[in-house]
Amino acid sequence: MSALCVKRQLDALYQFCNSRRWVHPDPLEFLYLYPALEDREVAGLIASSLAYGRVAQILKSVASVLKDLGLSPSAFLRFTPDRFLSAMFADFRHRFTSGEEVVLLLGGVKRILNQYGSLGACFLENYRSSDETILPALTAFVDELTSPFEGRTNSLISRPRKGSACKKLNLFLRWMVREDRVDPGGWDRVAPSKLIIPLDTHMHRIAMGLGFTKSRCPTMKTALEITRAFREIDPCDPVRYDFALTRTGMRRDLHAFGKKMLDFI
User: Fold this and answer.
1) How many folded domains does the chain comprise?
2) Do the beta carbons of residue 236 and residue 227 sit within 8 Å?
3) Average pLDDT, whole number, for the chain?
4) Fewest CB within 10 angstroms: 47, 106, 228, 244, which?
5) Which of 146, 127, 147 is nearest to 137 (CA)?
6) Could you list the residue range(s) of the whole structural domain that residue 254 is in?
7) 181 DSSP assignment
């Protein structure tokens, strides 16, 4: 099938799924609760970092952390001593993630807020429009964010330097950079064309079915290969179809529709 026909089918799927009615259950829904960008950034990072495992448990864990951070997570972190954070999350557990890891992540966020003013400002410090993708900026951002871990266990933030596909971080960036009826956006100075596909199991399987990759290893190299294939279809917004394609695998009421569209391709 020609690239034009593939684009038409993917565009039809996008148009149908590009609605908040299809978002639940997804940690993305927490971002809609924060009108202020600096709070939405923090909420988005927490929500994406905990986005592994069963979706019901993900939503429960994200809700638990954000509830403790109050109406303005960014303000709360700026003015709350680390010892209080440690006490607050001492009993927290999400699959492999301990309360200590959550506190270390929040410590990294707090450090960035105090040094740069916001997570977005920190990311922009190393963002260059001349780069092919956001990978260099993401790598530097992760280095800043994970400095409190200092070699300790870290199940929350993957490292691009180690070749990880960084699915959760690229999901966070999709939420922050893109803006449509689903993704809230806010990072207007980062071009959507630079984003990298959030490569989870479902997207990997779809991409192999579409012939976008032959690699069975979900690495950053594979994510970049798949992103380049999507960029051939939509050069300005290669991650545009991510929500629609992955949503059809998560919601039973969309499964038949998504399967029909993909089978046609």
Assistant:
1) 1
2) no
3) 94
4) 228
5) 127
6) 3-264
7) S
